[in-house]
What does this fold into?
Amino acid sequence: QVQLVESGGGLVQPGGSLRLSCVLSGSIFSRYAMGWYRQAPGKQRELVATYANYADSVKGRFTISRDTAKNTVYLQMNSLKPEDTAVYYCYARYADESYWGRGTQVTVSS
It folds into this structure.
C-alpha cells in the first residue's frame, strides 16, 4: 500500500526558509508524478508545485526537487510570507492511482 509521509513544517518568521520532505513507501518511487499542494484556513486546496509547474504566488521562492535513492520529494521554501501559512500536502499520481499525505503545518508569523 502506498503511503506518503510529510515532515519539515513548523513556525518561521517572515523572510525565513523551510524545507519540506515527503517520503513515498510501498511502491516504486520513480513511477509517480509528485507534487505539493496547500490549504489555508477557509480556503480550497491549491497547487503549489509539480516538477513542471509552480503556482504564480511561489515562483522564484519555492523549489521542488527529488531524491530517487531516498524515495523523497522536497519543497524548499524561501522568502516565506504570512500568506504562505497553510497545511502542505504531498501528492503522488500514477495512471489512475493517486495518493495524499496527511499534511504538515507551515506557519509564517512574527
Remarks:
- The first strand starts at residue 3 and ends at 7.
